[in-house]
Amino acid sequence: MKSLLNWVEIDRTALLANLRRFRILAGPAVILMPVVKSNAYGHGLAEVAPLLAAADRALWFGVNSLDEGLRLRALGIRQPVLLLGHVPLSRLAEAAAADLRLTVYNQESVRALLRIKTAGVVRLHLKLETGTNRQGVDLAGALKIAALVSRAPRLELEGCSTHFANIEDTTSPVYPRSQLARYQRIIDALRARGHDPKVNHVACTAAALVFPETRRQLVRLGIGLYGLWPSRETMLSLAERGRKFALAPALSWKTRIVQVKAVPAGSYVGYGCTYRTTRRTKLAVLPVGYNEGYDRKLSNTAHVLIRGKRAPIRGRVCMNLCMADVTDIPGVKLEDEVVLLGKQGKEHVSAEQLAAWIGTINYEVVTRINPLLPRIVV
Ligand SMILES: Cc1ncc(COP(=O)(O)O)c(C=O)c1O
Fold first, then answer.
1. Nearest CA to 201 among 84, 113, 314?
2. Which of 163, 166, 216 to mutate to test the pocket of ligand 1 (most atoms within 8 A of CB)?
3. What pLDDT, on a 0 to 100 scale, did the predictor assign at position 212?
4. Domain that holds residue 344
5. Whether residue 37 lies in the annotated active site
């Protein structure tokens, strides 16, 4: 690790412990589908997916794009892979050739699939619109697509899915339940016309944790797998129901000091001269900036951990650099390890803390860590 300047560590034990806890929660009959889109939520697709695949042969994998799906196949993942996002009509044959399951919600996609020659069956998951008004079709659209699929021997309607609008944002079950009811009405209507989707799914982490009835045949497990809570409301909802669930964050983000310097009182630090020292100050220059995913809103706001102590960020975060105040931390030297996210000694900077500083959610903090930074499984 000495040769690394800016890297992400993934705690294998934490990741696998989270997986095991969700396996126990969901029970053996429910398929768990780790959502490994966006570079496995910033944790590293190439590192995380093979590790999970080896740990549990029964897993499916969920990704957003065709290229992510092809990458999983290139990594040797043979388990079922479901693409959650749109595949360009001109590339559907590639998805079929790699045996990637498709989420469909456009008749155009199904008609394009009808025109391509595939060796095997292409399995489709129909996305139902139940009130999020993102991807998805209503009852009429679902019936049309299902009818098209049923006439094509090489297409199979394997499942129906939907996605909750506010399950992480509320402790109230009212809107999620209304979505679930709409979902069920469409499935019942499909069944009444002879369609038989067998792998149905609606649950993300928050739903799986709080509403057992949402687990259906498959759980799309994202943020919780990585040991992060979907929201405070999810924690509260569980607590209100008298239930406990432990999650272990798997990701730490680290860097090293590239220069230590003392500057006199009254010195400006960084672009825009937004910080001026009030005393003789020792600064540690860090090789991390907004390009690496360390948000510019952390300027003059965040702290990092050095020698187990908090070192405040001074001045603006630059593209590839930022400066931390180490005046009160004795012994700081060149190439000392710095924790941007994670634990050091008794201190901890959580993804939630970083999210609060920049006005976003933990999901965005971890997914925006530059995918080019090395991911090391420890
Ligand atoms: C369609 C879909 N299902 C499941 C998930 C996973 O959600 P979570 O990370 O909250 O578990 C996502 C995440 O964005 C998603 O878009």
1. 84
2. 163
3. 94
4. 251-349
5. yes
